[in-house]
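Today's session is about reading a structure prediction critically. Students often jump straight to the picture, but the first step is always the sequence itself: look for stretches that repeat, for charged clusters, for runs of hydrophobic residues. Only then move on to the predicted structure, which in these notes is written as discrete structure tokens rather than atom positions. Here is the chain we will use throughout the hour.
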Amino acid sequence: MAPPAGAFDGHHLPRMIEGLFIGPGQKVSGMPSRLLSAVLPALSADPTRDPELVCLDLYQRVTDGQPRDWEWHVVSEIGRYSWGHTSGLNLGFE
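Below is the predicted structure for this chain, in token form.
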């Protein structure tokens, strides 16, 4: 779920929707401390009303230097075959 307006802390982008991909037959034993997947809907999208969304698919990348931190990056065309959530989306799982 996207953070409320004004809650941008450097790790959240406005309108971003973080999530957790759970594949068919997978069990969830608890909520992770940090969600590793997110999408950023098109500006014209209404995530609460649109039956389908066009989004940028985001992943977390560790930044260089100290202190160690991370930032969101857009999944590349080749990268969409590398992540569990993108593989699931490519296979039609929702």
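Discussion point for the tutorial: Residues 1-8 have pLDDT under 50 and may be disordered.
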